[in-house]
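Lab notes, practical 5.
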Amino acid sequence: MRKSYNTNGAVFHSTTKRIIGIMLEKQQAISFTPLFAIWPELEQITDKLAKSWEGLNKLLPKTDFKNQRRATLMQHQALLNKKLLIVEQQYYLETDSSQKFRLEHIINEIKTDLQKLQTEINGLES
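Output from the prediction step:
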């Protein structure tokens, strides 16, 4: 079960794909179940609504979010590699030591970002 930790946020049950409660305060949630006990019509309404959504979801084309995310990450990776190449060229052409130091710092940041991207891409592929 995933929880939204914002006040008045929804509590989402990942297995049933339904909202099952509401956050009242930080890390305090209330389930809809007590409401159903005193208001049976509410449970019937939410069940009908859930069935309608399930029917709509069957009509919609399936989206492969994992592949979309991978493609986005790989595009970002390609852009960072281009940026790295440009900054490295500037570094090798630079003669001022303070500018070289600044460029070296930028190069290291780009390499760190590239490693993070590659880790995320690898995680999607496994």
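Observations recorded by the TA: DSSP finds four helices and four strands in the chain. Residues 65-125 form one domain.
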